[in-house]
Automatic annotation (TrEMBL):
Signal peptide: none
SMART domains xref list: AAA (SM00382)
SUPFAM superfamilies per UniProt: P-loop containing nucleoside triphosphate hydrolases
Highest rank taxon of the organism: Bacteria
Protein name per UniProt: ABC transporter domain-containing protein
Compartment list: Cell inner membrane
Family recorded in the similarity comment: Belongs to the ABC transporter superfamily.
Species this chain originates from: Vreelandella olivaria
InterPro entries named in the record: AAA+_ATPase, ABC_Ni/Peptide_Import, ABC_transporter-like_ATP-bd, ABC_transporter-like_CS, P-loop_NTPase
PANTHER family cross-referenced by the UniProt entry: ATPASE AAA-TYPE CORE DOMAIN-CONTAINING PROTEIN (PTHR43297:SF14), OLIGOPEPTIDE TRANSPORT ATP-BINDING PROTEIN APPD (PTHR43297)
Membrane topology, as annotated: Peripheral membrane protein
């Protein structure tokens, strides 16, 4: 008989401990600690300028060289804080989706060529097999006519289509962790709902864990199970999203909840209104 001590306890995909980031004399992030478990979606919520993007960059290994960093960032158990993205081994690589899909994609290269690359480079597929895989992934993103789409350049797509191509690109990398930094902020409400749904379905299906960076509690509640809330680079509250929504402790969290409840569906288009949740729905969707 196996004893309890031999049962394996899941280990975090991402474990951040005492993260500090300083640029010159400005302390941007201070003593931040949180975990993301396998398959879990955690949001890092905070106002503009609270240090969310710098935290995301630290996890991705994309901090500017002059940033001073302290603490620990473990990805799949391996210390990665001092490793820029280009020097990371396959198991500590993190895929990413950014707010600005236009600048995230190469404007001169077709969607097909960009989407084929991770399949060829990381998964050893032939060009033909990579093209098939790219088209299948685009189709699964509810993007019409993948055959034509792969021949287009990023500027020939709408913002929502482009963001779904970016999600496809991140999924093609098949990493254990994805960081999505405000991926819906630049989109209208209907397109936001489509992009959030694509993120949810694809991470559910692949088991990819996600760190979702946002200032939008409504978007977070549609996607994430847990939240880490930061203010001026310091964590002020964290926990299950439904608990934070029903019983916010900190004044900033209370403001976030109040702001999310104040979204008036009547000011939106009928389709958008259908996508906007009432306070009760906000909870149900968390
Ligand atoms: N290149 C830089 N050098 C020094 N400080 C910077 C630099 N870029 C941003 N900052 C400062 O770092 C702080 C955190 O910025 P960060 O971009 O991480 O915030 P954020 O929470 O992601 O905000 P937003 O939601 O607006 O993107 C801000 O106070 C900002 O003024």
């Amino acid at each position: 008989m196996r004893s309890n001590s031999t049962l394996s306890v899941p280990k975090p995909v991402l474990s951040v401990r005492g993260l500090g980031i300083q640029i010159g004399r400005q302390q941007i992030v201070d003593g931040l600690s949180f975990d993301v478990m396998p398959g879990e979606r955690v949001c890092l919520l905070g106002a503009s300028g609270s240090g969310k993007s710098f935290t995301a960059k630290a996890v991705l290994g994309l901090l500017p060289p002059h940033a001073q960093v302290e603490g620990s960032i473990r990805i799949q158990g391996q210390e990665a804080i001092a490793l820029p993205a280009a020097r990371r081994r396959a198991e500590t690589r993190v895929s990413m989706v950014f707010q600005d899909s236009l600048s995230a994609l190469n404007p001169l290269v077709s969607i097909g060529s960009q989407l084929r690359e991770p399949f060829i480079r990381h998964h050893g597929l032939s060009r033909k097999a990579a093209t098939q895989a790219a088209m299948a992934l685009l189709a699964s993103m509810d993007l019409p006519d993948p055959k034509r789409l792969i021949q287009r350049t990023p500027a020939e797509l709408s913002g929502g289509q482009r963001q779904r191509v970016c999600i496809a690109l991140a999924m093609a990398c098949k990493t254990s962790l994805m960081v999505a930094d405000e991926p819906t902020t630049a989109l209208d409400v209907v397109t936001q709902a489509q992009v959030l749904s694509a993120l949810r379905e694809h991470t559910d299906h692949s088991g990819t864990a996600m760190l979702f960076i946002t200032h939008d509690l409504h978007a977070a509640s549609q996607l994430c199970q847990r939240a880490v809330i930061i203010e001026r680079g310091v964590m002020i509250e964290s926990g299950e999203l439904d608990t934070l929504i029903t019983d916010p402790q900190h004044a900033f969290t209370q403001e976030l909840v109040a702001a999310a409840h104040n979204v008036q569906p009547s000011t939106l288009s009928p389709q958008a209104a259908a996508d906007v949740l009432t306070p009760n729905d906000l909870l149900k969707s968390a």
